[in-house]
Amino acid sequence: MKWRYRKQEFPPSWYDYPKIISIILSTRKITPEAAEEFLYAHKKNFYDPFKLKSITRIVERLAEALENREKILIHGDYDVDGISGAALLFRAMDRLGFYVDHYIPHRASEGYGVSQKAIEKAAKEGFKVILTVDTGISAFGPAYSAKFKGLDLIITDHHEPKRANINSPKVIKKSLQKNFVKFEEDYKTSKYILPEAYAILNPKLEAYPDPNLAGVGVAFKLLEALYTYFDADSEELYEDLDLVALGTVGDMVPLVKENRIFVKKGLEVLTNSNKAGINALKFVAGISDGEINPFHISFILAPRINAAGRISHANESFELLITEDEEKAFALAENLQRLNNKRREEERAIFDEAMEQALKLDLKENYVFVLSSERWNYGVIGIAASKLVEEFRRPVILITFEQDIGRGSCRSIEEFDMHDTLTRFSEYLESFGGHKLACGLKIRKENLEKFKEELNLYASELLSGLDLEPALEIDGDVQLSDLKEDFIEYYRLLSPFGVGNPEPVFSLKGVAVDRSSIKVHRERHVSFWINEQEIKLRAIYFDGQEKLKVLSESDKVDLAFSINLRDNETPDFELKILDLKPSSNN
Questions:
Q1: Whole-prediction pTM value?
Q2: 562's torsion region: left (phi>0), alpha (psi -120 to 50) or beta?
Q3: pLDDT for the residue numbered 173
Q4: How far is residue 106's CA from residue 422's CA, in Å, rounded to a whole number?
Q5: Beta carbons within 8 Å of 83's beta carbon, 6+ residues apart
Q6: Kind of pairing, strands 162-163 and 192-193?
Q7: Which of 5, 15, 374, 399 is 20–30 Å from 546 (CA)?
Q8: Which residues contact 45 (CB under 8 A, 6 or more apart)?
Q9: Is residue 167 scored above 60 in pLDDT?
Q10: 173: Cβ contacts below 8 Å, ≥ 6 apart
Q11: Are residues 423 and 566 in the same domain?
Q12: pLDDT, tens digit (0-9, with 9 covering 90-100), for 86-139
């Protein structure tokens, strides 16, 4: 495996911390002045919600709805971010006395975005306000429809707004129809092209200190503002940070700034949650005991919450997150477990077929993999696309066709802004939306080949000179003496790890392994001890049997490792080996 070292933005010597901690702060682009705030992540460091554009207008409209007992329809989305965000708004607004109900569209029959069925429901049942979470920034047609029916549509979203560029009118005109004149005026005067809603709350629309909030994070900021307006007890709101952590980690936004605080504090609430649904899901998934970390959300809880929307209807997951009935919670959690098992089977089949297609592509001509089928479940293709990105380190678009219309899920790499790219080639698309690393699209079959051709010509200009070979990203090289420093107390503060703050990886070169200590466990895993320079460290290499020969025959080795903490043991950490090779210092 190739090793690639991350750029250190500041010299480690600038920090007043042990070298290992200083390296991590530097590669995370945390200045020495901001290091303490990053490490300790206090709730007091939440940004003022009233820095968000339009939030005062929204709070005043919602206060008016409360005073007049107007019905508010909370419109969520069918993934973990939109579901947890809708549940957060529902629970908190219900506590504040609002008259609220919810609507989550069906992924297969209604698709992404503000649903026309939701607008019809709201108009028919006497709602006055529709409040979205995690959706709506591209809802041009639905926004006009809501306005026509006398509904105040309040959009809270975190996805990229459509930018004013020469191609955009062709796409948006399809939704606006007769109202294109109004759009033309906006197009000439605005940086973004926005739906004509009552108000829009999106941190990407202005210079908000953290533009990378998840949808549930934007919803939390709105609730912060509401609690301030009504002089309500914010500690009550902080009890819902478990929901914020679920959506934030599940949506894979960077865990820095406010997101880091949301997740760090939210994991504490999630570990000791008082919500019947969350506790039932933890029990069914086998993680009731011990602390919850981002891994448990990403690979255990979020997939089960997402499974309902992918295979059945996301309402089941929403009901799980709002119910106080333990019996109902366990029934819902067990069903999500069944749906997730089915999702895994479908995902495996899609991935295998997509991989077969990918292996036939010429990598010199296909910098973006655009693969399609008429058999794939739209609800599952995004997961398969993500796995292909990990495998090839190239952007991937998987499209499933039903007759002449295809719906696609796009996943990308840091070097390739998928949303910006789709904006450039929007003339070939019926619709699209999302953000830099993940988007959804709709395309006609007749446009697919031209879209694929133009897309890859553009991608070749951007990516042809870059090193796209998959590699192990390493924060920095350390010495054995650095591991003798008292750094573990600070290391614990670095979590939670995830997007934007990955688990740190280091290299240690020219190490002599105690060969007599080498052991093989279950014919797969290898452990050994390093015993030199007055330091004794245990190392464990999961699935490392193939490197047994290197360990046994090399006088010295180079190690790539992460830190595995060990509570109540001496030493209080061990090395989790990620790769090793004969030492270059031999």
A1: 0.89
A2: beta
A3: 52
A4: 24
A5: 76, 77, 104, 247, 305, 309, 314, 317, 318, 321
A6: antiparallel
A7: 5
A8: 37, 261
A9: no
A10: 180, 183
A11: no
A12: 999 999 999 999 999 999 999 888 888 899 999 999 999 999 999 999 999 999
Task: Examine the domain organization and report whether 223 and 154 are in the same domain.
Answer: yes
What distance in Å separates the CA atoms of residue 61 and residue 470, rounded to the nearest whole number? Answer: 50
E strand intervals along 387-481: 396-402, 405-411, 429-434, 438-444, 471-474, 476-478
Q: What is the 3 state secondary structure string of 128-179?
A: EEEEECCCCCCCHHHHHHHHHCCCEEEEECCCCCEECCCCHHHHHHHHHHHH
397 - beta bridge partners? 370, 410
pLDDT-based confidence at 165, cuts 50/70/90? low
Contact 549, 565 (CB under 8 A): no
E strands in 286-366: none
Across the chain, mean pLDDT equals 92
The mean per-residue pLDDT over the stretch 187-193 comes to 62
Which residue, of 232, 249, 282, is where some domain finishes? 232
Same domain as 168, residue 138: yes
104: its two tokens: 């989550």
pLDDT of residue 376: 95
* Domain presence at residue 151: yes
Quick check: is 447 in a domain? yes
Residue 139 backbone phi and psi in degrees, to 5? -85, 65
String of DSSP letters for 231-246: T--HHHHHTTHHHHHH
Distance CA 441, CA 387 (A): 19
Q: How confident is the model at residue 567 (pLDDT cuts 50, 70, 90)?
A: confident
Q: How many residues does the chain have?
A: 586
Q: Any idea which residue has 């009890």 for tokens?
A: 239
User: Parallel, antiparallel, or unpaired: how do β-strands 476-478 and 535-541 relate?
Assistant: unpaired
Q: Which residue has the tokens 């080795």?
A: 557
Distance CA 99, CA 273 (A): 25
The Cα–Cα gap between 247 and 339 comes to: 19
> Rounded to an integer, what distance in angstroms lies between the CA atom of residue 183 and that of residue 252?
33
Instruction: Clarify whether residues 447 and 525 are in a common domain.
Output: no
CATH number at residue 548: 2.40.50.460
Phi, psi of 541 (to 5 degrees): -120, 100
Sequence-separated (6 or more) residues with CB below 8 Å from residue 34: none
Q: SS3 for 487-513, per residue?
A: CHHHHHHHCCCECCECCCCEEEEEECE
Pairing type for strands 99-103 and 476-478 reads unpaired
* Residue 134 identity (one-letter amino acid): D
Give the domain extent around 54: 49-232
Q: Would you say 367 and 460 are in contact if contact means Cβ atoms under 8 Å apart? A: yes
Nearest to 527 by CA among 540, 537, 536: 540
Whole-angstrom Cα distance, residue 26 to residue 476? 10
The DSSP H or E segment spanning 132 is strand 127-132
